[in-house]
Specification:
- By secondary structure, the protein is α+β, with helices and mostly antiparallel strands.
- The chain has a domain of about 90 residues: Orthogonal Bundle (Arc Repressor Mutant, subunit A).
- About 40% of the residues lie in helices and about 10% in strands.
Amino acid sequence: MIQQPPAQVLYAPCSQNEMEIVAATLIKEAGGESTAGMQAVFNVIWNRAKGNSCQAAHVCLVPRAFTVWNGKNAASVIATAKSHPCWQQAMLLTTLGLQGKLADITGGANHFYNPHKAHPAWAKKMTLTKVIGRHAFLKGN
């Protein structure tokens, strides 16, 4: 179930390509997780973009910000993500999120990682806010 905030905020519309970049990030980072897992990844993107819908796709493509984009061609990542069974769910989350209609279920997290796969040094300097599925969500101090 998608958790929504109590109030709506104004947003600037994004291009289809920008929406697909965000949705592809959700799929590639949390496509094997629950809807809440994908929503939490969106929350991290949104928190990094400081609630600016026009910056969400840019945040996804910052070098080394999300492993899915490291050294990859955006068109090929998007094409692969579109074949995932959760693509429509990721697009719905992206649409709602970019309109400011998703609650932050991460407690303000701006980073996440899978502790079963990695133990990044940067995580030691952050505060754990939530564990959702296989991901730990953290907030920078």
